Amino acid sequence: MAPPLDLAFATVVELADAFARRTLSPVEVVDALLARIERLDPRLHAFVDVYAADARLAAEGADRAIRSGHRIGPLHGVPIALKDLVDLEGRVTTGGSRVWEKRISPVTATLARRAIAAGMIVLGKTHTVEFAMGGWGTNTHMGTPWNPWDPAVHRAPGGSSSGSGVAVASGLTPAAIGTDTGGSVRLPAAWCGIVGLKVTAGRISTHGVLPLSTTLDTPGPMVRSVEDAALLYRALNGPDPHDGATRVWAHDDPLPTLRRGLAGLRLAVLPEAERAGVDAEVLAAYDAAVETCRAHGARIERTALPHRFEDYAAATGRIIGAEGYRFVGHLVDDPTLPIDPHVRPRIHLGRSVSARDYLRTLAQMEEDRRAFAAATAEVDALLTPTTRTPAVPVDAIDQSGTPAHFTRAGNYLGLCAVAVPNGFTASGLPTSLQVLCPPGQEALALRIAFAYEQATAWRQRRPPLDHPSPPEERRR
Question: For burial by CB atoms within 10 Å, which of 170, 274, 404, 473 has the most?
């Protein structure tokens, strides 16, 4: 007889199976998660707002529908949390900013509508870096979520989807939505020990999601397993008349190819020069992951890339700065407004980017995309560490820098990517493998990540949540 399901750490797939067999009710799950949020979130600080009453009401409705034979599909009754950039009509969406603490959403984001239409239950909104402008996960005015893998030291949760990463990793929700403009799904996924899917721009609609960079913004699922990511991606992707960028992509279902394995796939590895500056334990976990892929039938290739990752990261920063300044420049230019002191200068960088330089950067981006595609035409994916270090203490963060060294290339080059756990340091901090695939190849990226995940047991580890952390430490 199978052991009882741990409601806090059950995957989306496990919950869907239990609901379908009627061995578990959405009401039981929502009640358990809300009780856990009430107990743990005062110190984890993952949620901006919790919709407890509405979530319970939705769970009751889902339970009745499932019991009466009206189950919509595998996501019916499964809870989800939304990053505080995702509009829900009539609800407050702050974008992580005190300036917008009373901003009422005028619409419901397409991705939220699709999740709700699939029967998912929104538990609440999760914290973000202000205006989503930062990879460390800190928020001076609204508080920095606590990375659950170190109960004693406040470590960076990764950003900007910090609350979503912490909420999933801590067993507060089985799924959450993040957004990724330079790594903001993958960075918190890496440092919080979960799975994050960065989709190709246009795969998932950004309608109703507060923008940072219309060129690079991509919403995506943050979950505990690759199959969970595939299920959510299937539900959320597809053309949306409110978002012109989605019209070039047909609806995509990654599930038919998810279990095809690695045999025969050609996987490129990190060029030797890019290994410099990467933490030794992160490199060891990466090398071990590469060997696992080789052992399961992948052909490991060495490919010369046309540019360094740092070059792609710098160009990404110029685009984000210019486009971010377009949206919130009027706010950061006002010294009387309570803008995060670390975010203000990042947005201000866009003020100095001329129209000529901005357009030249976009033209260079298209040229670099063609060059990268040509250099990697003979391989199916590029494997890298997701981050160069494990999660760093908040007190040690250099806010003038970025942890998005390996992730920004995915946005700049128009790629899709999966961040999947690939080990732990000696002190118990997660490490992560990044699978980068060509544009529109989400099914392939998920297939590779799933095969690796199935060959390892890293996702079964859980963070130590039994030791309270000083709540005042969160506000940094």
Answer: 404
Residue 237 bridge partners (DSSP): 204
For residue 60, what are the contacts with CB-CB under 8 A and spacing of at least 6?
27
For the question of residue 160 being annotated catalytic, the response is: yes
Backbone φ and ψ for 132, nearest 5 degrees, come out as 65, 25
| Torsion angle (degrees, nearest 10) of CA 315, 319, 321, 327 | -170
CA distance 272 to 302: 9
What are the two backbone dihedrals, phi and then psi, of residue 105, each rounded to the nearest 5 degrees? Answer: -65, 130
Catalytic residue (one of 25, 97, 164, 184): 184
Burial (0-12, 13-18, 19+ Cβ within 10 Å), 36: middle
Known catalytic residue at 83: yes
Of 392, 422, 428, 388, which is closest to residue 405 (Cα–Cα)?
Answer: 388
Helix or strand holding residue 420 (H, E): strand 416-424
Angle between helices 226-236 and 110-117 (to 10 degrees): 110
C-alpha–C-alpha distance, residues 207 and 239, integer Å: 11
Q: Which pLDDT belongs to residue 470?
A: 43
Delimit the domains of the chain by residue range. Answer: 12-240+247-303+371-470, 309-365
Mean pLDDT per 10-residue segment, the chain (476 residues): 86 98 98 98 98 98 98 98 98 98 98 98 98 98 98 98 98 98 98 98 98 98 98 98 97 98 98 97 98 98 97 96 97 98 96 95 98 98 98 97 98 98 98 98 99 97 71 42
From the candidates 160, 162, 205, 469, give the one annotated as an active-site residue.
Answer: 160
Q: What pLDDT does 235 receive?
A: 98
Select which of 25, 83, 97, 213 is catalytic. 83
